[in-house]
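ESCALATION

Customer reports they have been waiting on this structure for their group meeting. Please prioritize. Original submission:
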Amino acid sequence: MPSQPEPDISNGFSPDYSQDDVLIADPNPSNAQNVSSRDVDGDGSIDVVHSTTDGVQQIDYLDGQGEVILTDVDLDGNGTFETAVTTAEDNVVVASSDIDDDGDMDVISYADGATGQVFQEDTVEGNVVVDSQLDLDGDGITDVELMDDNKDGTFDVAAVDSDMDGHANVLYHDVNGDGNFDYAAFDSDGDGIMDTNVDASSYANGSVGSVDNFDNLGHDAAQHDAGMDGTF
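Update from on-call: job pushed to the front of the queue and completed.
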């Protein structure tokens, strides 16, 4: 079997999320220093609540039942809202963060709306998710990390922690971008080194597996617009 180049995972397999939970907004925080509300559409119900607490501005958008459907937060008081939180289907809380304060989202976190525990965290460059970390069993440790090395909008590498020790022991790589993995590298003895390669030619269908098998495990960041598109 011809040897295959090992995929570049210099950005690393990151077993621990950068945040443990997502705070679910309170439209009427008790410690807010300034609170104002607006009925934007004139239907007699509050639609928008703006509050300031210790210099942090927060805007909550409410539905007709008074439930918060989107929250924008300006953490540094410069008028740009760096964090936006909304609730998607199945009570999933989606939090988008503008890390570099350029008005574009850089990190998207998905959390259980009941517990606030993050189960997926995506890194975004431009409009492309270049890295997605998935916690499939809810233990707070990454089980699968998907990477888009060439930033074409399709994942090329899947790093899998199959023995749940916090370290990837299987790497799948799609070399030609056809949506199928061309080879897999394994750490057969648990020393942290990928020492065994399996080539797609070893399989009758010419593939080690489909990228979609992993891609479908997570939420699609492109489906959620958290509204970080302006200044207050």
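Sent to customer with the following note: The longest strand covers residues 118-125.
Escalation resolved.
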